[in-house]
Fold this sequence. Notes:
This protein is α+β, with helices and mostly antiparallel strands. It has 4 domains: about 1-35 and about 235-295, eRF1 domain 2 (Nucleotidyltransferase, domain 5, 2-Layer Sandwich), CATH 3.30.420; about 40-230, CATH 2.40.50.140; about 305-420, Aminopeptidase; about 440-510, Hypothetical Protein Ychn, Chain: A, CATH 3.40.1260.20. About 35% of the residues lie in helices and about 25% in strands. It contains 13 helices and 24 strands. Strands 4, 5, 6, 7, 8 and 13 form a 6-stranded antiparallel sheet that branches. The termini are far apart.
Amino acid sequence: MQDILINWSPQETRVAVVEQGAVQELHVERTLERGLVGNIYLGKVSRVLPGMQSAFIDIGLDRTAFLHVADLVAPFTPGSRPSSSAAASADRDHRGGPIVPIERQVFEGQALLVQVIKDPLGTKGARLSTQISIAGRLLVYLPQDNHIGVSQKIPLDLRDALRARMQVLIDAAVAADAGGAVPVNTGGFILRTNGEDSTDAELAEDIAYLRKTWSRIRELSTRRAPPSLLHQDLSLLQRVLRDMTVEDTQTIRIDSREQFDLLHKFGLEFMPQAAGKLQLYRGERPIFDLYSIDEEIAKALGRRVDLKSGGYLVVDQTEALTTVDVNTGGFVGARSFDDTVFKTNLEAAQAIARQLRLRNLGGIIIVDFIDMSRLDHREQVLAEFRKQLARDRVKTTAGGFSQLGLVEMTRKRTRESLAHMLCEPCLACGGQGIVKTARSVAYEVLREILREARQFTPREFRIVSSPQVIELFLDEESQHLAGLSDFIGKPISLQAEPAMGQGQYDIVLL
């Protein structure tokens, strides 16, 4: 069974997914870092540039946004409803056919429904598209299109059956809204990868949510004047109801009365079943203290993860891939070495699956279990690992043991990892996780002074470095420093700078 805890503050929202008393997932959204991608605006064309085949659109931001002709597909203006033939024609143009020049499609002062596809960056405004898409938990709705698509990551032999299921559900939803008749243009849908194993009820709920959302956007576009924000991509709070709440979810507890009321209202309109699980937390202790979640966050940012048996994991995240190394550590409780290794690997299989969710690690992941000589032990560990991975909402695939005893797996990247979101590279080590020893830095300084002395003739050289390096020059390396001073015929002075990292130094010519 699953519980969801929400810790809200004006600057940050934190969500913890708890299963069997242990934190499995952590989600963080910061108010100032929330982007605009996915937002839908009623904009106003402020300038058309035929030479660049683009237009500047005022959507109410500090800088006008940018719309290129390649992203101008079946533009929707308030009060209009593109026919299925018009949408299909525009779609063909978008996929490689002849593109109508932008000056023949839009004009200055025109109101235009647009969606942000790229956030503003530096001096550049946001990039826009008129091809509206609204993402749900399982589906993506394309209101200006009229076809059913399936994610390319879903096996080819399953796609036709999924399309047929989708068509029946869409027709039923549209007919219910229209009083029995199915209009020609119902909008298009794309089934996302995580919707492959969904039930009809789950898909029908997503269809209803997306159609209701689009209906509200269209209605607002006829009542408001440009520039206006018509639809904001869901906040983390709202995505808790849309994406994280499942049948096994028992409670969703939130520690803010104001946000509870807003979320409950949103849930009643779009996700009534999920709204019924909402509870306002009134406890005196901070809500995250219930399961020591802040301690779990601290652990999830470290390299080493201790196992209950005495073994441990070492997790290293790089740009290309993530590696997980399993070690027995102090675990010697089993009857034989083979049993010790087997039990450590079994425990590690459970812990690794949890750490992948907790840290939100994605891409290629290499797991180095401790070598096992028995085939049945390897098969049991692999079966346990796949069983634990199956509980992950994010799509994962795991291969078997390679000739080198490694397990290679992948986990879909859905958002930034916890470490990338909460941390930044260390200024002292440059993100490497290691720094040069004080002695290595001292010898580098001596070589640099010798190099400088061959080019310049100052009155004196001064070494400015960390206290550790300066202490070494005053003690163990004093003889080498004095020898260099005699060799170059110049005095060398020392200055400790506590603000400097151990690998940093400056050589000042006086």
